[in-house]
Each structure stands twice: as C-alpha cells, then as structure tokens.
Amino acid sequence: MNLFLRVAIAASILSTYQTQAQKLKKSDKLVISHLQKHVKYLSDDKLEGRRAGTPGEELARTYISNEFQKIGLMPKGDKDGWFQSFPINDGKDYSADSYLFIDEHEINKKDFFPYALSPEKIIEAMPSIALREEGVPWFLDLGAEREANKHNPHFDPEANILLKAKDAAEKGATALLLYNDSSQVFNPKQKGDQLPIPVIFVSENVSKKYFDDETATLEIKMKTGFRNIERTGNNVIGYINNNATYTVIIGAHYDHLGYGEDGNSMLRTNERLIHNGADDNASGTAALIELARKLKMEKKSSANYLFIAFSAEELGLFGSKYFTENATIPLNQVSYMINMDMVGRLNDSSRTLTVGGIGTSPSWASTFSSISDTRHFKIKFDSSGTGPSDHSSFYRKDLPVLFFFTGLHTDYHKPGDDAERINYEGQFRILQLVENVVKKTTGQNKLVFTKTREQQTGTSARFSVSLGIMPDYSYSGNGVRVDGVSDGRPAMKAGIQTGDIILQLGEHLTSSVESYMQALSKFKKGDSTNVRYKRGDNELSADIRF
Q: How far separated are the first and last CA of the chain, in Å rounded?
C-alpha cells in the first residue's frame, strides 16, 4: 500500500460476526499451503524487498509469470508476452557530465555537486573571491547565514538558496559557488523552475583550500551537465478468455520498498535493512495467483478474467496508471476491477475486513447482501472509489472498483513485515469472499459506474482544505499534474481540468506533490487565494476560495 496515499478509512459496519470457526476441508488446506508458499518466496530476503526496477523485482515477476503459466493463463502483456514494461524516472545524475577545475586542479566529484535545477553550461573565468563582478562566477559562504537563522522557524534554507541564485543572476553573475554548507546534498529528483545560472556546492575541504583567502583571484573552469536516470518496472498480466462480452480485472501490486531507497520507509533509524513486504503486498499477490487457479478451473463462466500483478505501486500507482493508459484489452469491455492490497493480517480477535469502493456501482450492495456466509469477518464498507492503492487508477477511468484490505499495523513499511506474521487462514477466507463476489456478479451485464466522494491523500503535511484534484504521482516534471477533478470543489469552479499542471498556490510554489500538500496546509476553510497553472504551452491563473 502506497505511503504517499495513506488514508483514514471511514465506514459503516455491515454483517454480524459468528465466532464459531468453519472446519477446513482438505482442498482448503491445499490452497492455504499454496498461499504460504507464494508469500514465503516473494518476501524472501533474496528478493531484497522487490523494489520496482531491480533484480529483486525481476525474480518476483518471473515467479508470478511462471505460476500464471502453470495455471494455464494466456499471456496478455506487451507483444503477447507476460510483461508490460514502463519507465520509472529516477531523477538526474551529474557525475558523468559535470566538472569543476580550480587553478587547473580537478575537483573530485565527492567534493562538489551542481544544484539539480541548474542550467547546463560551460564557464571559464577568473573571478576574485571578495568582488561581485559582472560576467564571472560569484562566491558565497552560507554557513554564517545558516548559523544566524538556526533558531528561526521561518527560515527556509532551500528558498534562501534559490533567492541568492536569482539575485546574483540579476546582478550579472554567470554562476554561484556556495561553500561551508555541509547539510546540503545532491537531490536527483529536485523539482522546480530552472535557475537562471548554475549553482555549485563545494565541500568544506575545498572551501578551506581555495576560498579562505578573500583577496585571491581564482581560475575557474566548470561545466554543469546532467543525465536522466531511468529504471524499468514491469506489470505481469495473464488472461482467461471465456469468449464473453465483458472482462473482469483482478489485481494486486507485487512491488515493495527494497531497502527504503525511495524514502518511503517508516523506519526512522537510517539502517539499511530489507523491507520484505509480506503483507504489503505479497499477500495480495499470492491471493491473486490462487484466485486465478480457482477461476481457471471453472467449467463455465459468463466473463473473461484479466489478472494483473502491478509494479511500482509504492512509488505512486505507476504500474496501474500505465496500464489504464496503455491497456492490453479495450477498457470499454471491462465490467469492473477488484484490487487486493494487504490482505494478510486479518486480526483473530476483531476479524475486521475493509471493503472499499462499495459506492462505485449500485450493484455492489445487492451483491454483498446476497452472500450469506460472512461469518469470518466484520466487514466495514467504504464508499469511495479512490484511496491508497491501484483501484484508484481504474476508478479514474469510470470503472466500478472494489478494494479488499485488512488494515494497517505496526510493521507497515518496516522491515518487520515478514512471512511468519501472516494470518494464512484469514487470507484464505478473504480469497473465498472475493471468489464469491466475482461469481455473484459475472452473470450480469457491464456494471453501472457511479462517482463517489474522494479521499484526501496522505502526506507529512496536515491540512484542512482541499483544492479538489487527484495528483498524478507518476509525473516527474515541475509542478503537480492533475489526474482528476472533483465535482463542486475549488479546482472545478476555477476551471482547472485533468492534465493541467498546478505551479503555485498563492505565494507558495508547488513544484512537487509534497510541496503542494505543504502549500495546502497554509490555508484554512474560507480563505481566498490565486492558483497558477499550466495548460499545454499556456500559463493561466484563477481565483479560488476554499
């Protein structure tokens, strides 16, 4: 389940809980053993946390595709294969395309780096350290300024750097060299408007060697250049063709956090530990495989089935969004989508299972009311079609969805999410319930879609207002691309449309989703402000009221 999309799930309780456990049949025990085998493999240390685009992800997708093949599914990925590949932007790298020479001495890459928003330029000049002359680089010591503001809660070091660079450019500097700022590190995914001049950070060692003498004039030769970094994620797609008019999509993401390199771990000790993700989401992937096995054994069905193991969900629903934009079957022939994410921690005491998306079709209420055996759960229904996992991508395409989830726990996005902590019988009971839902709905025509309320996405910021957009978490450019607009909310009233890019709220730049959330936290209900956004090549603005 994606960290940036965590939500508080509010719901009403349906069904009563019967404490008497149903005796397991021999065939049930076989399915449970299969579930256990899948989870143990997918959450083994040798997969190193299944981070999207890594060898661990490759081992996982190979395992899933082999299981799909053994079951007898048809491959439905790219070029009639099992996989659908998609790019994952990993930011920039400067090491191969940037250099810095001072007085003909090449500075080691470990001792300098260009600010990631710097333009690509080559500069040769002989500036004096103490002078601010036009046409040459300027030098600036940020250490004293940072020290002077260390107790100022309103001091923003990042904004200060940008301000200094723009001010220097306006006064004729060709570049800005910053030193004694050891807290700054290269951010390969830095977002924002490109600076007018290159900004270079140098280490304390370089600063002391070359910049202590303010009367000195230095020969500077420098280049700022960057290379885009990409890794590749892969969805795994299998198909059962029953020659029906409509197809049911059943999905679960199989990627996880690796060692937490993408900054989405909840571990706060800075240790480099494998995040195995047994519940999140080896549990849903195992259930996906076994549900495919069960539905393949059906002799007659009124629907086709498409099974998708998504990658890069943890980065912001990359895999499911890519599929919905590049579907390997026509989406107008899809009846609905079911998503299983974190279905491995059913609590033996509370037995609480959340089913999201119940409001996305009028058919869902009657479907669940017709399922008599719900003794294994206290089911909490949530109406919203959006939320913290891949079903949101399908809801965005006006498809009914359901989302099965056993809840957050203390091992969420931590190294302790291991296979021995899974409730395999509970996982099996959820698999039975999903199978029953599928069987109760496949005889119907294409399900009617209805829009639902939209949940606010999770973030480190706390805010009480909403613009009423769904951000596109897969967007790697500057700003926040709008993936959907809610009816009746400020964005819609302002004329903002899907595909627009939000650049600024009031005085707050929104270069990324996180900075957008931080900007929202500055406003309260009833406040008015201005939103600046881009549509195609045109930059627009509108007044909004929260």
A: 29
